[in-house]
Amino acid sequence: MEEAYKLITGFLRENGKVGIRNHVVVISAVVCANRVVEMISEQVPGVIPLVHQHGCSQIGRDKEQTARTLAGVGKNPNVAAALIVGLGCETVRPEDMAKEIATTGKPVEYLIIQESGGTLNTVAKGAEIVRKMVADASEIQRTEIQLSDIILGTECGGSDTTSGLAANPATGYASDMLVEKGATVILSETTELMGTEHVLAKRAVNQEVADSLFSIVARVEQESNRMGVDIRGGNPTPGNIQGGLSTIEEKSLGCIYKAGTKPIQEVMEYAETPRQKGLVVMDTPGQDIESISGMIAGGAQLIVFTTGRGTPTGSPITPVVKVCANPSTVKTMADNIDIDVSEMIEGSKSLEEAGREIYQEYLQVINGKQTRSEIFGHREFAITRIAITM
User: Fold this and answer.
1) Helices marked H in 228-275 — which ranges?
2) For labeling, which of 112, 170, 280, 348 is most exposed (least CB within 10 Å)?
3) Cα separations (Å) of 155 from 223, 267, 284, 294, 295?
4) One digit per residue, pLDDT tens: the chain, 390 residues?
5) Which residues pair with 354 in a beta bridge?
6) What residue segments make up the domains of the chain, in order of their start?
7) Where are the alpha helices (DSSP H) in the chain?
8) Reported pTM
């Protein structure tokens, strides 16, 4: 079956990276610019607005992380061109974001509402800019690419017992197949590594990587202790517990399967770009949308999302492949599930068969097949914070 998809295609970018989608985006630098961003996007079909609640009254590492995330989304190879819109007095500066995105060589411009004459004038100027960007992007043709060009982000949400028993192991099998082809796979959700960090550390390529794994997990534990709260209830969530996951350690043991079995090459901060090929770890929260946003900001062109209880979650610029092994969920939420591996639970499909099915789905999606979340227009986006708002 693998032979049928030897040829995969994508969009070659100016810096040599490849995208599997060809989006033009309008990115808000600050919450105050959100409605203007939406109005600009409404003027030109196909343009994707990217809005959020941050960008002002942030300082230090927290501001830097928000800026890195927003610029990272613009730099993602799935983006052909970007327009940044700011108010003019925010801490995350649109001109700095545009300058960072421009390092990729792709078209990028920015507008400041206070300097453009208010909402209507900014919308008119923005619409003119993105109209040309869309026209230019439409002329970019797909070309043959290699799987080694791909970064896959892995996520699990709405997890239950079937996630750890079937969906995650099958996804892990597909992750190993990608790594063997030279691709990069990101394991995320630091909260859901708790209790398994010693298992993962044994697979680290060196002591530095092992120590980094222990460090990011310790930070989560320290933050929980600082707040004086029990992590249980936030993770595992009430839905996880109803689905049969009683402790974070139990959830973590299932979570780590989705990234496969390969050596861990490096540990990255949130929204950082991988420096190594193969399996890497990104420090993200367990909250699905914030975690996915970090990985797409790190360059992931494709996301796999395993779920037991079901979720419609998508992403603004990156296709999200949903994998489910719960026989009930694949019936009740059939319109949100891309790959049904529930036959593993029923005993009629092997781990290898399910893993290869997921791998084949990746190849089709890379080549242009739309995922369910893309079809329904799910574009959820959120940035994790590490400090209070000033």
Assistant:
1) 238-242, 248-255
2) 348
3) 22, 16, 10, 11, 10
4) 444 557 999 999 999 999 999 999 999 999 999 999 999 999 999 999 999 999 999 999 999 999 999 999 999 999 999 999 999 999 999 999 999 999 999 999 999 999 999 999 999 999 999 999 999 999 999 999 999 999 999 999 888 889 989 999 999 999 999 999 999 999 999 988 988 899 999 999 999 999 999 999 999 888 877 877 766 556 667 766 676 766 667 667 778 899 999 999 999 999 999 999 999 999 999 999 999 999 999 999 999 999 999 999 999 999 999 999 999 999 999 999 999 999 999 999 999 999 999 999 999 999 999 999 999 999 999 999 998 888
5) none
6) 23-137, 147-375
7) 34-43, 60-75, 94-102, 113-116, 119-137, 161-162, 168-180, 197-201, 207-227, 238-242, 248-255, 288-297, 329-332, 343-346, 351-366, 372-375
8) 0.94
How deeply is 295 buried, as exposed, middle or buried, from its count of CB atoms within 10 A (0-12, 13-18, 19+)? buried
Class of domain 23-137: alpha beta
Report the distance separating Cα 224 and Cα 227, nearest Å.
5
Sign of CA dihedral 194, 293, 377, 106: negative
